Amino acid sequence: MRKAKIVVDKMYELADVDPRLYGSFIEHLGRAVYTGIYEPGHLCADQYGFRQDVIELVKPLQIPIIRYPGGNFVSNYNWEDGVGPERKSRLDLAWRSLETNEFGLNEFAKWTQAVGAEMMMAVNLGTSGIQEACNLLEYCNHEKGTYYSDLRRQHGVEKPHGIKTWCLGNEMDGEWQIGRKTAQEYGRLAAETGKAMKLVDDSIELVSCGSSFEKMPTFPEWEATSLSHTYDYVDYVSIHQYYGNQAHDTEDYLASTQDMENFIKTVVATCDYIKAKKRSKKTLNLSFDEWNVWFHSIESDDKAMKKTPWQVGPHLLEDVYTFEDALMVGLMLIMILKHADRIKIACLAQLVNVIAPIMTEPSGGVFKQTTYYPFLHVSNYGRGKVMIPLIQSDKHDTSGHEDVSDIEAVAVYNQENEEMTVFAVNRNIHEPVDLKIHLRDFQNSRVLDYQVMESKNMVVVNSMAEERVYPGFKDDYTFDGDEFETVLTPASWNVIRFSVK
Ligand code: AHR
After folding, report:
1. Predicted TM-score (pTM) of this structure
2. pLDDT at residue 64 greater than cutoff 90
3. What is the pLDDT of residue 12?
4. CA neighbours closer than 13 Å in the CB half-sphere of residue 448
5. If we measure between CA atoms, which residue out of 45, 18, 32, 178 comes closest to residue 108?
6. Burial, 471: exposed, middle or buried (Cβ in 10 Å; 0-12, 13-18, 19+)?
7. Burial class (CB in 10 A: 0-12, 13-18, 19+), 303
8. Closest listed residue to residue 415, CA positions, set 111, 91, 16
9. Which of 22, 53, 70, 322 has the smallest set of CB atoms within 10 Å of its CB?
10. Ligand 1 pocket member 324 (CB < 6 A)
11. Nearest residue CA, atom 2 of ligand 1?
12. pLDDT-wise least confident of 38-52, 257-271, 440-454
């Protein structure tokens, strides 16, 4: 049988888990807002039009921060259209949809309170600039006595929103972006915008736009050039990445977190290069503010946007996720945790209906996609300190990757609860793997529980009618207080929780 061993040593700590690693994203796109989180008239809607059935599924995910309002949407968005008594309908050029602006930032602030999250706000650096970003920040964070802070109060929001984290634009390197810029142009504008925003409120944190994805032709030169302008004014650089199994090659698909790791390492190296070049004392961290699986809907969405544009809340990016997609989401979460020393924010893109773990039907029900569960597990049990796991695993090659370890894993130690959780994926889809976990220097350890998601059918999905993919408990393991042993089924997501001292 194939073998793997994981050693978790009490001394090998990587970093504290920043709770914001379990962030998410709501964009004015498709049905994320309209008929997603907001549907006045729905049987489950409260007095604000917020669907309570959706909120009930969001809450267990314990999401601390949610990015808003885009995404590509933000690059053509005038936030003033979405506040106050008179809302203006506009063409949203990013998604060729009709934006009624019935729902805007004050509604979103109320909704985030309902789910216990804080807002992460993006400013428009596509069609707008410094003045508009400062006005928005003044509206959100300044207490009173100025035009925009008093306007907020007139709009019924007395207390400032106090938004701490701000993205300076979105994917400004992308050809698809409204108001796309060169790295020089973006760097200059973002630096001046960031400088001015910190004069409005010096308690905020800023995110400089990184490349839209690793395969962008301008990566990593985009980071090097734009950061040479923004480095002194910002706190993070963004990183975005989506994966998909377009080639119907599951083995190779599940190996793509190797690429994700290279991407992260290169962004970190580029930040550190600029740090050295500037003789700066500041270390820039990463905001992985868009990550997920996205491929199922791309072709049909392109057609829909051409054929039937200017719909309110159209069906866009409604990927229905398979079992293997859930494994991929688990693998991506593990990779984010393995780099928690430099990644401080990460947003699962997105949360409801749009490439999302939660799906709704207009006027109908709600269901959890397959990908809901790995996120739920990691957000619930992955708080504390990431331990550097020493992993010895048999390896395999795939069509596009070499030396892919069968087992990918990470461990998180929650000192407060005296718990250690090991998250492990067996991405060998053909063979089981005998796994030993050795907890070094932990005392009085015992297994709390062992949860697993497994399936022989890689493309099975959940739907409104039936939840076919969900985790179960497993008890065929041995543990002598020191070494845990079990057999991981091929293609499985495993969560093993220990009580430790
Ligand atoms: O999350 C969907 C889209 O993906 C976002 O609008 C954009 O930033 C990215 O390309």
Report:
1. 0.97
2. yes
3. 94
4. 13
5. 32
6. middle
7. exposed
8. 16
9. 53
10. no
11. 71
12. 440-454
290 is catalytic: yes
Q: For the segment 395-406, what is each residue's pLDDT rounded down to a tens digit? A: 999 999 999 999
In one-letter notation, the amino acid at residue 309 is: P
Of 76, 240, 292, the residue with max ligand 1 atoms within 8 A of its CB, to mutate for a pocket test, comes to: 240
Ligand 1 pocket test, pick from 66, 76, 171, 180 with the greatest ligand atom count within 8 Å of Cβ, gives 171
Q: Is 173's C-beta closer than 6 angstroms to any atom of ligand 1? A: no
**Known active-site residue 466:** no
Q: Which amino acid is at 201?
A: D
Residue 267 tokens read as 């962004």
Q: Which long-range contacts (CB under 8 A, 24 or more apart) does 275-282 make?
A: 275/231, 277/228, 278/228, 278/231, 278/232, 280/231, 280/232, 282/231, 282/232
Q: How far is the CA of 6 from the centre of ligand 1 (A)?
A: 36
Q: How confident is the model at residue 481 (pLDDT cuts 50, 70, 90)?
A: confident
Question: How do 419-426 and 97-99 pair as beta strands?
Answer: unpaired
Q: Which of 27, 302, 350 gets mutated to test ligand 1 (max ligand atoms within 8 A of its CB)?
A: 27
DSSP 61: G
- Residue nearest to ligand 1 atom 8, measured at CA: 71
- Name the amino acid, one letter, at 93: L
User: Distance from first CA to last CA of the chain, Å, rounded?
Assistant: 32
Query: What pLDDT sits at residue 443?
Result: 83
* CA nearest ligand 1 atom 6, residue: 71
Per residue in 338-391, pLDDT (tens digit) is: 999 999 999 999 999 999 999 999 999 999 999 999 999 999 999 999 998 899
Residue 74 has pLDDT above 90, yes or no: yes
Bridge partners (DSSP) listed for residue 237: 208, 286
Q: What are phi and psi of 412, to 5 degrees?
A: -125, 130
Length of the chain, please? 501
Amino acid letter at 77? Answer: Y
What is the tens place of the pLDDT at every residue in 123-161? 999 999 999 999 999 999 999 999 999 999 999 999 999
CB of 349 closer than 6 A to ligand 1?
Answer: yes
The protein residue whose alpha carbon is closest to atom 5 in ligand 1 is 71
Supply the DSSP string of 22-41, one letter for each residue: GEEE--SSTTSTBTTTB-TT
